[in-house]
Amino acid sequence: MSLPRRVALLSLLLVVPLLPAAPASAAPRIQQRSLAPTSALPDTPVAATLSVGSLSTCVTVDELGVGVRDANQQNLDFPGSTGRTRICPGGYTLTTAARGFPAGTYTEFGFYRIGSTYYDLPSQTLTVAAPTVRQLALVPARAVADTPVTATLALNSTACLTADEVGVGVRDANQQNLDFPGTATDVRICPQGYTLTTAARSFPAGTYTEFGFYRIGGEYHDLPGRTFTVTGSVVPPHPPTPPFPAGQLVFDEEFSSPPALGTVWNSSTTSAYRYGNHNPDDDKLDWLQPGALSSRSGANTFTATPGTNLLENGDRSWDTGLLTTEGTQQGFQVRPGDYAEVRIQLPGGNGAWPALWTWKDGGNEIDSFEYHPDNPNLLELSNRINSAGTYYTDADAIRPGAWVSIGVHYGASNNDWYVNHELVFSDHTGTGPNWSAYLIFNLSICAGSWHPAPSDTDPISTAADYLRVWRPRA
Hints:
Layout: H1 3-15, E1 30-36, E2 39-40, E3 49-54, E4 59-61, E5 63-69, E6 85-87, E7 92-95, E8 104-114, E9 117-128, E10 133-139, E11 142-144, E12 152-157, E13 161-171, E14 184-189, E15 194-197, E16 206-216, E17 219-231, E18 248-253, E19 286-288, E20 293-296, E21 299-310, E22 316-320, E23 322-324, E24 333-334, E25 339-345, E26 352-359, E27 366-371, E28 378-383, E29 388-393, E30 403-409, E31 416-419, E32 422-426, E33 437-445, E34 460-471
Parallel strand pairs: 2-9, 11-17, 19-22
Antiparallel strand pairs: 1-3, 3-7, 4-6, 5-8, 8-9, 10-12, 12-15, 13-14, 13-16, 16-17, 18-34, 20-21, 21-22, 21-34, 23-33, 24-33, 25-30, 25-34, 26-27, 26-33, 27-28, 28-29, 30-31, 31-32
């Protein structure tokens, strides 16, 4: 062997022993990717699901499981750990057998064993407690005496549970039960929520307590109560004047008697509809019927019912109501400077599409509002002449059954929208100085392209308290 090779070998022998050796007890690099559940019901069997993966090469462990410790560090592990298991970067998921826990707070974690050495993965809190059911919304707060009305209850729970029954209760001053019919059975209530709409019933005039409830087994649980007022009048009191000095009242429909057809109103046709009394082009099922309008106790009610006519596209029509000032003796039109305000009770149920809008010469459309109950807290406010608009939302004021006043102050360069006399939107585009148009007030029925069509054949209705127009004094 040559001298240079002996020197090189000696150098290598001197270097190698200096390299650090990997500790024999180092834990394989296994990552806990997810662990569930984080909550459970007391004394109710539940399984755990653990997802793990190795961070480099595949690792074989002798056991994989889910551990649980109570506040006293006692072992209450989930049964059903695995035996010899290969864990690779692609991941491995274990679902244990089920077990129940007493109410309390526990520490939960995945673990694995290699030989006789256990390795614990990151821990989390497991809360075992009865879930809390919360009432998110309950309507209506008002109704008209001897007029059928439905109730809608929205609730959720801090953890999923199954209720044997969910409903809306009503109690009179003597604590007599006058509950809404149409409770739901075998209901799964989870954090994402559940909504119930009851069947309809009527009540005598008076003041009641209204509340949601749920039943598990033979035990009833009442949710927070609220006052439910049933009056003898269709409409509650309303503000008599506009929200700003608007001039003189030039159009005043109080709906205290049937609309004056022919003189003030036309209920049979509109040039906004392709065929005069119906318009399948605009996702409407409408077929106009004067008989769909009725007046009682100071309100005009539009009621839509399934019709017998087929539209040109083959859809079955719905008979419904519309009022327009076009084609009448008075021929009333709004113009820049006018303030028009309507007060309406918003309907519920898929398919309902009430609106107050303007029309003339194939356009000139300003939408005071459009409403669809599938967006229960939203009004569509639109300028279709000089494109502008907004979706206005208000969960307290805008909802099925609520009475709301909606007004538009038309302007050549700006239109202002008011909801319950509060300014909510200005379009800064206006109508133009020479604009004028007829009023249209109606209940359309959706065909299903943009919003859901009716889900059944039950009548759909909405009521109006008044429609007024003020004009600046000359």
